[in-house]
Amino acid sequence: MRALEVEMVEQATVEPPVGDVPEEVVPRELAPVAPGDKGLPWLGRIFDYAKSPIDFFRHQWDTYGEVSPFYATGRTGAVILGPDGCDEVLRNRHKAFASGPAWGEIVGPFFDRGLMLLDFDEHHVHRRIMQEAFTRDRLAVYTERMQPAIAAGMADWNTDPRFPSYWRLKELTLDIAADIFMGGAKETSHAEMNQVNKAFIDCVQAAAGIVRADVPFTRWGRAFRSRKVLEDFLRKYLPAKRARLTDDFFSVLCHIETDDGERFSDDDVINHMIFLMMAAHDTSTITTSTMLQYLGQHPEWQERCREEALALGDAPTMAEIEGLQAADWVMKEALRLRAPVPAIVRHTVKDVVVRGVRIPADTQCMVGIQFSHLMEDHWTNPNVFDPERFSPARREDKSHRMAWEPFGGGVHKCIGLYFAGLEVKSILHRLLRDYRWTVDPAYVAPLDNHSLPFPKDGNPINLTRITAGGRR
């Protein structure tokens, strides 16, 4: 497991040479939008994507290939598909792609100045500071602290034939985030945490907003007010976090400093906390919910994971969580089948050639990472749940360095990917020790894809508690 971590870090930081397009080859221009592909007036094909990102990507691939035109919000952007194209964009060797302007059009006002919305030298400085909050020693402390939070969060989970796992997991991961990121915030009431959770939902759902201004009764209008809720909530605790260094992430961000003396301002801390708390509980909720669905539909894998969980104690260490091999494969397979972020967006700051196609400056680009996860060229029976494809004997994710990329790639690769893995597997460990669950084999999650994909029905599972006598 440690070797895999080192390998993934190297992939995120080392950029091997990329061959330029030979000078004698004249790049093709971005294809015109085919008749019938323009979609609705001004809105274009936004709703085609929201209906099914995979169907949308498949149409783009079959019609245009790796780099295709996409009309939306009154202009033509570009869709990049396949590991080779994704690799070129995300590694960004020529510094032609910016993250901030792209995400800024979608959720910028609500996650402004978060790490994902910074670019180039500024992004490098902020990431270098923030990396100090994700050292291995600190991850070990976070893992230890999250165990009692998980146990407390599941204390009232009872037998329910239609247990709404997604929504209960969302409450749980926010509680974990409040503990690990905020140090518990013990003076915070349950009602206030519910308000914070709703504010995060409003900010994320703003991605689907049609009216992109602070207009009452619109998604963006709600998100503007919710951003204020999050800022007020965090600023209330900021003086205490500045005054004393503790183990929680909020305090660490207030105190970390590079060897060169670089530190975060108060505004930096607030901006990064809002973005990271969203990312920490939203994406982890989606991944864990997906794992519960597939483990409920594949009881043999549930039992295989349970054997590993029962071999550990109630509060496993980071090293023990890392050693949960079957759970790790299941998590990776869930991330492959349902990436929490199916597409990454970028904005071109200058003309650039991707896979032999010239993309003009000032073009909004969609990088369809989910499509790579389901390509038959890289995966055996890609629509089938098969965690052993990640086993050492197969390692289908190594068919291409970007065949499996749920955390993105290049300098913007998710800084919290190891924390996320530890959190998801810690939640699963506790669930497997205390519960069994089933899901109808024919169940297909009805996904809402307007922002991050989530099951509209709450991903119901038939949950039953394991008696104490059933444990080893």
Keywords:
three-stranded mixed beta sheet, disordered N terminus, 13 strands, alpha+beta, 17 helices, 472 residues
Description:
With 472 residues, the protein is α+β, with helices and mostly antiparallel strands. The chain is 48% helix and 11% strand. It has 17 helices and 13 strands. The strands form 4 sheets. It has a 5-stranded mixed β-sheet with strand order 2-3-9-6-4, with helices on both faces. α7 packs across α8, α7 runs parallel beside α17 and α10 crosses α12. The N terminus is likely disordered.
Beta-strand percent range: 5-15%
Low-confidence stretches: 1-22
**What oligomeric state do the depicted chains represent?**
single chain
Overall 3D shape: globular
Rg (CA only):
22 Å
User: Structural class from helices and strands?
Assistant: alpha+beta
SS summary, helix count:
17
Listing every helix as H and every strand as E from the N terminus to the C terminus, the arrangement reads HEHHEEHEHHHEHHHHHHHHEEEEHHEEEE
Q: Helicity, in percent?
A: 40-55%
* Counted beta strands: 13
Strands ordered across the widest β-sheet: 2-3-9-6-4
Summed over residues and divided by their number, the pLDDT gives a mean of 91
N-to-C CA distance: 26 Å
For the sheet with most strands, the description reads: 5 strands, mixed
Topology summary:
Elements lengths: L1 H12 L14 E2 L16 H6 L1 H12 L2 E6 L2 E6 L2 H9 L5 E2 L1 H8 L12 H11 L5 H18 L6 E5 H18 L7 H16 L13 H25 L5 H7 L10 H32 L1 H12 L7 H5 L2 H13 L6 E5 L3 E3 L2 E3 L4 E4 L1 H4 L44 H18 E4 L8 E2 L5 E2 L4 E6 L7
